[in-house]
TrEMBL record:
Membrane-topology descriptor: Multi-pass membrane protein
Entry's localization field: Cell membrane
Organism encoding this protein: Marinomonas mediterranea (strain ATCC 700492 / JCM 21426 / NBRC 103028 / MMB-1)
Chief location category: membrane
Transmembrane segments: 20-39, 103-127, 139-161, 167-187, 223-246, 266-289
Keyword Lipid metabolism: no
Protein name: ABC-type transporter, integral membrane subunit
Entry similarity comment: Belongs to the binding-protein-dependent transport system permease family.
Keywords: Cell membrane, Membrane, Transmembrane, Transmembrane helix, Transport
Amino acid sequence: MNISTAFPSFDSLRRSQAAALLLVLAVLAIAWYLGALWLNSDLLIKGYERRSIDWTFGQLISDAYSMKRPLLPTPDQIGAELYKSIFDTKVSSKRSLVYHSGITLSSTLLGFLLGALLGILLAIGIVHSRTLERSLMPWVITSQTIPILAIAPMIIVVLGAMNFTGVLPKAIISMYLSFFPVTIGMVKGLRAPEKLHMELLATYSASSEQVFRKLRWPSAMPYLFASLKIAIAASLVGAIVGELPTGAQGGLGSRLLSGSYYGQTIQIWSALVVAAVLGAVLVVVVGYFEKRVNRRMGSQL
């Protein structure tokens, strides 16, 4: 067998996207391990000095990478925690990250659906009514200047006083974050049709409903799906933030909170990794539906 055909050449590796991603991952892993050593060693050295223990650099590295409560856990510690809490624990157990992910996912999806619906309805109203544009648009933009960490406890308290508990308050917070990108994207999308096309439909005496259905709505699809990808990620953030002030017993937010209470940084990082993976999967699902819709509309992409 020719060696040149058995192994990829340097040029092919340089052009390969997979090789580039692996290179970035390798650099990040090295930086992470060095960072963990740097952050954890200070605590260890103080402990050695307090207990008058002679130590070597090799012992310092070994202890820094095997601490039970490190300042910065190593990737293998996070991987072991993920394996234990996903595959070695029953899904119904409160120690399972699958259990907590399911709770967060339910409020994320409900908030996303409510936010997408609200954003689309607001955009339709703004595009078709100058009065609504002047009255609503400033409030839509202003709403996002209020930090979600400040408004989330108020939403929880007000809805709790009205006996709305459980998924709904968290979904409302998710909706608050997710409706904005949908509104802005759809306003731009519904106004995307060219003037020439609008005038062509006007010559056919098309009604506003026909112009919307035949021209504005199809033109807005690329803007809608682009904004939905942002909205579903924002909805996940809102669901996690909504679990913090409630003292909820379930959800990735409660997992983060309990980890911070007890200094369980490995638990915190594993929950963060699961949240990041969950967000990426949700964006991919929206992208899948975008391709399906584009294909039904005749797109070749």
